[in-house]
Fold this protein.
Amino acid sequence: MAEGTPVGRRVVLGLVGLGALGVAFGAGAQDAVQRAVANVSAGGALLPGGFRYYTVTSGFPERSPAAYRLRVDGLVEDAATFTFTDLAALPQTRLTQTFHCVTGWTVPDVRWTGVLVRDLLARVKPRAGARALRMYSFDGVYTESLTMAQAARPDTLLATGMQGKPVTSRHGGPVRMYVGSMYGYKGTKWLNRIEVVDRVVPGYWEHRGYDVNAWVGRSNGYG
Ligand SMILES: Nc1nc2c(c(=O)[nH]1)N[C@H]1C(S)=C(S)[C@@H](COP(=O)(O)O)O[C@H]1N2
Ligand SMILES: [Mo]
């Protein structure tokens, strides 16, 4: 299901109203509602208190770490296919950072672990003329983009761990992207290919009106 447009004040007030539901019906009921909505619509409920599970397809694809492959190709000297074990052998980075969906929900202090995209790129050696990355998902539909400078940031991560556990299938495991300086939509779930290209190619949500440069607080009408 679509995740809608960035929220303004009116919708934020609506969120506060839904928060009151938790008081009226008890937190257990609220959690049950949130789970139900996540299961049924996959669109994420507008309820406070944590992550939504987003997908633009009808489901949440599953792939085991053993079956996982990440292809990195395009304008590189050494195109390569990485297994989960290969990724685990690269330098590991930890980040603790707030997650921001452009529709207004956030999750504070999310603990991520994984491989910085810049450490991955160092292995495949981008060629002169490389300007951007295209990310692909094994959901078969979702795509995203980053400039090389955005990709090289110290908070642009191929995440294999989230909140001290492996990234679950619902959250895009075994490997998803996390772009800490940008809204959540830049973080491709179920990542299976990174193509190095000569220009930014807008991704799934950018074709539907979101900003290509998705800086938290200064894009999509915020700031
Ligand atoms: N493949 C894929 N990646 C995706 C999405 C999606 O629907 N499909 N949604 C994006 C959006 S808008 C957000 S806010 C985050 C949500 O991550 P979560 O589902 O783990 O909460 O994933 C991003 N990556
Ligand atoms: Mo989002």
In short: Residues 3, 51-56, 101, 137, 139, 142, 171-172, 184-185, 187-190 surround MTE (ligand 1) (CB under 6 Å). Residues 9-47 have pLDDT under 50 and may be disordered.
